[in-house]
Amino acid sequence: MQNFDIQEYTSRGIKNIVKNIMRSAVRNPKETAFVMRFSVTSAKASSRRQELEKQGTHIPSFLIASITSSCNLHCKGCYSRQNHATMDCEPKNQLNASEWGKVFSEAEDSGISFVLLASGEPLLRKDVITKAASFQNTVFPILMSLLRS
Question: Can you give the residue range of the structural domain that contains 78?
C-alpha cells in the first residue's frame, strides 16, 4: 500500500485548477497574464512549503480565513446560523483589517498562495477584502452562498 501524501495531493489539485483557469482565460490577455503570474507564484509557494516540511514544519497548501460571523442573509440550510455561529449583529472580538493583514503576510511567507475568504457573509468585510487586495502573490476567492430563503 502506497503512503498518501496530502501535501502532494493538494499541490497537484491547485496546479490542476490553475491549468483549467488558464484554458478558460486564454482569450483575454489580462486574465492570461494574471493566471501566468499566479502559476509562477503558486510554484514558488509550493517550493517554500516543501522547504519548511524538510525542517519539520507542515504548512497546508491553502488557508480558509473565517473573516466574520456577521451575516445579513438567511440562506436555506445554513449550518452556521443553525449553530448560532452566524448572526445578524456586529460580531464581538473579530480581527480588524490590520490583524488580518498580518495573518495574510504570515501565510504568504509560509508558502500559502491561496486564501479562501469565508464565514458569515465575507462581503460585509470590505476592509479585509481591501487589505487582501494588497497581497499580489496570493489569490483570495470569496465563498458566498447562493441558497437564499
Answer: 62-149
Q: Based on the domain organization, do 29 and 75 belong to the same domain?
A: no
Do 132 and 67 have their domain in common?
Answer: yes
* pLDDT tens-digit map of 36-75: 888 899 899 999 999 999 999 999 989 999 999 888 888 7
Cα–Cα distance, 78 to 74 (Å, whole number): 8
Domain shared by 92 and 136, yes or no:
yes
Number of folded domains in the chain? 2
Q: Which candidate, 90, 75, 99, places its Cα nearest to that of 124? A: 90
Domain co-membership, 48 together with 116: no
Rounded CA-CA distance 71/81 in Å is 9
Count of residues making up the chain:
149
pLDDT band at 87 (very low <50, low <70, confident <90, very high): confident
Other Cβ atoms less than 10 A from the Cβ of 20: the count is 11
Residue 28 DSSP SS3? coil
